[in-house]
Give the backbone structure.
Amino acid sequence: MEVGLVVIWVATFLLLGLAALPIATWLLPESADAGLAIPLALAVLGIVGYLVGQFAFGLPAVLAGLAVLAVGSALSVRVVELDLRAYAEVAGVFVLAFGLVIWIRSLTPAAAPLPLAIGEKFLDFGLLRTLERSGQLPPEDMWFAGEPMRYYYGGHMLTVLLGTLTDTAARYAYNLALAGFFGTLVAAAYGLAGSLVEGTRAPRRLAAGLGAFFVGIAGNLETLVRVLVWGLPGPVDGWLVGLTGTERGITEWSPGDFYYFDASRVLPTDPSVPDSAQAATEFPLFAWLNGDLHAHMMAQPFLLLVVGLALAYYRLPAESRRKRLAVLAALTPVAGVVGLTSIWSFPTVGGLLTLAVALAPADPATLLPAGYRDRVGPQADWFREEVRRVGFGLASAVAVLAAGVIWTLPFWLGAVLEGPGRTVTRWYAHSPLGPLLVIHGAFLAVFAVALARRCGGQLSRPSFLYYTGAVVLLVAFVLGFPALGLVGPLVVGGWWLLRTQEDTGFPLLLVVAGAGILLLVELITVEGERFNTIFKPYAQVWLFWALGAGALGARLATGWPAELLAANRERLALGGRALVAVLVVTTSLYAVFALPAHQSNPGPAVQAEGRTLDATAYLEYQYPREAEAIRWLDQQAGQPTIVTAAPGGYVWDADRGRGSSAPASLTGVSTVLGWHHESQYRGDDPYRLRLEKVKDIYTHENQGYQRDLLTHYDVEYIYVGPAERARYGELTVENVPGVTVEKKFENVTIYRVEESG
């Protein structure tokens, strides 16, 4: 394995974080600053690299990003006192998390299609390679030659910038970046969760450890259900299967049948359709085991940076107007980075900021100059007061998101406004109770106990609260809207506590934020994207609730709120510790099964001599008939255009004409038309037009017309391999004037298209 590269990348991340530590210390709350220093450094490198990359991508963009980071740190270090011990603690967490993913990826490093690997690794790797070939942004689309990429590529851009900084080729940077983003995520969760209990009885390291565990190691309760069904008597396991809504085949399961993918497919995409396909309800450990270098994964550390900045705003007093405005200003480029990395995460920045401004102890009107505050000051009527605060929150969120768009305006003008567009519509089929409990039940248990205790300590008749919650759950279930029953009380109770009880704090705001996202997913959908409407927001719910569960679990373990309940603190603490212990054990079952299974049976994705982090090492072993031709194509400089059989797909089965996007995906050399995702990016009509033109290039009888098409798409190389022969049968393109053999391999011929005189 490439140990030297591992050491270089670990050192690079930690040094970048150390360089950003003065800025983080000035901007962010205590404890959170050390954990969020690395994502802050990456955000600076990303936004500056993107802006400079519009003119000169690569080394100039890297150097500009480092220069801005250095200047910001030099200015900040004069007014702060650095806690290097706290950063060393976070660095240790980063190294452990980084090492875990390096171990995982060294067993299955391949950026491969089906059937060797599951997911969209060809998309992710192709983005890295086309960005490596790009002299400026946006990159050319490797599956739609001659046009800019219409996909959110910020995380891939940052990976290439890190590869440039460390002189690492994309085939290694793919897996090293996976480890780096995971390490950054877990370290950020550690710092944030610890900061959430500052000023309480809860030990900081307990909260930090729980937050890091719930974010990085924990899984949902699907594995627990399987273990219980396997171990319990028949009548009981049948009842359990029916209650949770899991598939009936689970009753024949045994531990030897464990498959890491099952836990990510629990919720039906459309419950109104019998045998509906299951939506992706991922958690980080599953995502990194699966190994896509996917946009929503790389956006997660930046979402935690947004949480940290929102926490900083929430804690600042009304008198610190300038500092609060500075935090909001700092959020604008971070929002730009989030949108550039994953559009699905961008609205969440606005939602979280709306809550932070509306629910912060400081009156939001104090953000305004003194002369304007009295006009929009506090209202005596509670309803008008909440509307006023929410209005301020929405206005702040709109301003921050608009500024975030301006930071990355070329991306939005190209990838978003010129795309086919999607409409948001009302959703009609609500998720069943069982799968919701399997996915969210562990976190909901912590939140239910925390709210019941805290509300019980405040209300004169707490039993009324409990009965009301039970009735709401029952009514929502009867009405076919169980999610409302599960999280509606969290929104109402959490909001009330945040507005009236100072000791509850920011963890409850994260609970409300996650509950709000969950309810929105139940109420609306993006047209044609129901799978993603569940998939991407659920990943954000997991992050918010994992942090909230870590902080609230630590507080419950210390007996909170014994003083309000007039109860024995030790008894409450014992109950809290028991709850936390049960949740840690049950949510760790996925890792307990998945990691040994990965070790003993990593699958067929790579067969190479020894462990490696080379994402393309599988090529010679799994696809020997095309490997040499693709390696040759990969060595060609610049950004030539090729033509390959279309469309491509998730499967590489060349004998059936499938997987023809492989040459473009593995090299970054743009093909006239590749994967079928291009119909989503650009619309069906442009996609189908090119599909017909590619067929004409290979098979048309009019050589003049073929030559015109080659010239129109600026084709330099024609790839003729097993997929082209299987799909098109008899080919005529080799007879076109000006088409000559450039390189001939055993199973592939690459033709050059000479420029017409």
Q: What stands out?
A: The radius of gyration is 27 Å. The mean pLDDT is 91. The beta strands are 424-426, 524-526, 641-643, 670-671, 717-720, 739-744, 749-753.
